[in-house]
Write a structure and sequence with these properties.
261 residues, alpha/beta, TIM Barrel, 8-stranded parallel beta sheet, 39% helix, 17% strand
Length: 261
């Protein structure tokens, strides 16, 4: 019924209790989850999770916050994405909030991920924070619209959302949308086209209300859907069906866990 389109089940706090987390997912009707890569040294453990569980998928990429890394090449990323359970490139993008100084390396890394996605013909998972203008510009310059993808853990304006959607991207809402002070984000969730919406936890981070401040997990994605349903004055089932269909359409996977061409 629900899909967590972005989580980090390989992170130690979650990996230590994987069986319990998978059970909680089932109890809360969270049928699938996408485990997202943040660096290449840990990518094998992300891929292994997807290989071991029919309802888990993986991505491959290097997060923009990971500064001291061997820079991935587009061909390398595309080759690693050539796997039936690796369904996306990322997470990638720009983050000017945590890092300062000359961030040209970050922009170049982002460009390589977009080129890898085009080469592999798989969608992008994009992280952007305090960098919307440059993010959209590079997406446009590198032809990100050819493969599309998702603006994950979206916290930007309605205008940024519309520009991303125009480039064939989906907008994914995390537990932040349940926070009382996230008024602008609530407006985006209220008004966005239903066929361009995804939901996620970004666990172990950003647990939604009523679990805010605690360790997040994929089972909690239903609270994101419930908040959006309330904002839109509709039933949670409508949000569940739409976001589930959107996930399978974007990432080109069947409901049994296999990849479609």
């Amino acid at each position: 019924m629900f899909i967590d389109s972005h989580c980090h089940l390989d992170f130690p706090d979650l990996a230590a209790n994987l069986d319990e987390l998978l059970r909680k997912m089932q109890e809360n009707q969270v049928t699938h989850a996408l485990c997202v890569s943040v660096n290449l040294p840990h990518f094998p453990r992300v891929r292994a999770l997807a290989e071991a569980h029919e309802n888990l998928f993986a991505s491959v990429g290097v997060h923009p916050d990971y500064e001291d890394q061997i820079e991935p090449e587009a061909n390398e990323l595309a080759d690693l994405a050539n796997h039936p359970k690796v369904i996306a490139i990322g997470e990638t993008g720009l983050d000017y909030f945590r890092l300062t100084g000359d961030l040209e390396w970050q922009r170049e890394r982002f460009r390589k991920h977009i080129r890898a996605a085009r080469k592999a013909n798989k969608p992008l998972i994009i992280h952007t924070r305090s960098a919307a203008a440059d993010t959209l510009r590079i997406m446009q310059e590198e032809g990100a619209d050819e493969v599309g993808g998702v603006m994950h853990c979206f916290t930007e304006s309605w205008e940024v959302a519309q520009q991303a959607i125009a480039m064939n991207f989906y907008i994914s809402f995390s537990g932040i949308v349940t926070f009382k002070n996230a008024l602008a984000l609530k407006e985006v969730a209220k008004n966005i086209q239903l066929d361009r919406m995804l939901i996620e936890t970004d666990s172990p981070y950003l647990a939604p209300v009523p679990f805010r401040g605690k360790l997040n997990q994929p089972a909690y994605v239903r609270h994101v859907a419930e908040e959006i349903a309330q904002l839109r004055s509709t039933k949670v089932e409508e949000i569940a069906v739409a976001t589930t269909d959107n996930f399978f359409n974007l990432f080109k996977v069947n409901r049994n866990g296999s990849h479609t061409n």
